[in-house]
Amino acid sequence: MNIKRFRKELFSRSKLRAIIAIFVFLALWELGSRSNEWFGFTPPWIGHVPAPTAVLVAWYALLGDPGYWQSWYLSTLRVLAGFFAAMLIGIPLGLFMAVNKTFNGIVFPAFEILRPIPPLAWVPASIIFWPTQELSIAFVTFLGAFYTIVINVVGGAKSIDVRFFQSAQSMGSSQWDVFRRVVLPATLPSIVVGSAVGMGITWEVVVAAEMISGGGGESGSGGGLGFFIWNSYVGGSYEQIVVGMISIGIAGFICSELLRKLGSFFTPWLRKR
After folding, report:
1. In 3-state terms, what secondary structure has residue 29?
2. Which stretch of 25-34, 86-95, 262-271 has the lowest confidence by average pLDDT?
3. Claim: this prediction has a pTM higher than 0.85
4. Which of 229, 265, 223, 266 is nearest to 246 (CA)?
5. CATH number of the domain at 52-270, please?
6. What are the sequence ranges of the domains in the chain?
7. From CA 177, how far away is CA 183, in angstroms rounded?
8. Among 244, 210, 238, which Cα is nearest to 224's?
9. Per residue in 8-17, is it b (16+ CB within 10 Å) or e — as a string?
């Protein structure tokens, strides 16, 4: 039964359309990149990008390079550290801001002043104030997810229908019961959405921070995927630049999919929508 279901999902129309779209994109990319070689003219932009086959050859050569996998490991570790720190601080802070008007009135103005500042604008200050570059990258990565998570949690908690609170109180529920059975379940979808968006921003930020800070003090290709891309650019290896970009996309996709699966597990009432 599971095999039949797997085949049905694998060969569904939406999956087939996605696979066909990817192959068409790769074919057009290959054609555009090799136009000068095959037809004697170079189309703008795409003509200067390495062909997919050349990228694939470079990628295959990197599979046996420990520095490439170390870059994966370092970037993933930094992303997860900053992301989980943002969740541990952002979710309780957002919930408390939503349920306590006095606390919200004190914290929210400062929060709104700091929120528009791009995380990358904090890189110079974080390098100065944090003792190591590794902590600087972790702090900037934390900021990438923190504001998004808090805003989504506050918005989700404040959008709860007041009749749910009235019903719970009429049945004699304590404040803890109201929080556990009303506020938290109703806010979970917003937490999941904020976490997924925050994860994407975190990957963007960590890559840029690694480029700016020189990979957290690591040398060679082992300073994270951001430094791997920068190092490839300096060395003139444009195929490796594309490999690094695709690697970041794959890593971000895996993290986001895991978060969605986890969110679906904790919000079973939303699965059939």
Report:
1. helix
2. 262-271
3. no
4. 229
5. 1.10.3720.10
6. 1-49, 52-270
7. 9
8. 210
9. eeeeeeeeee
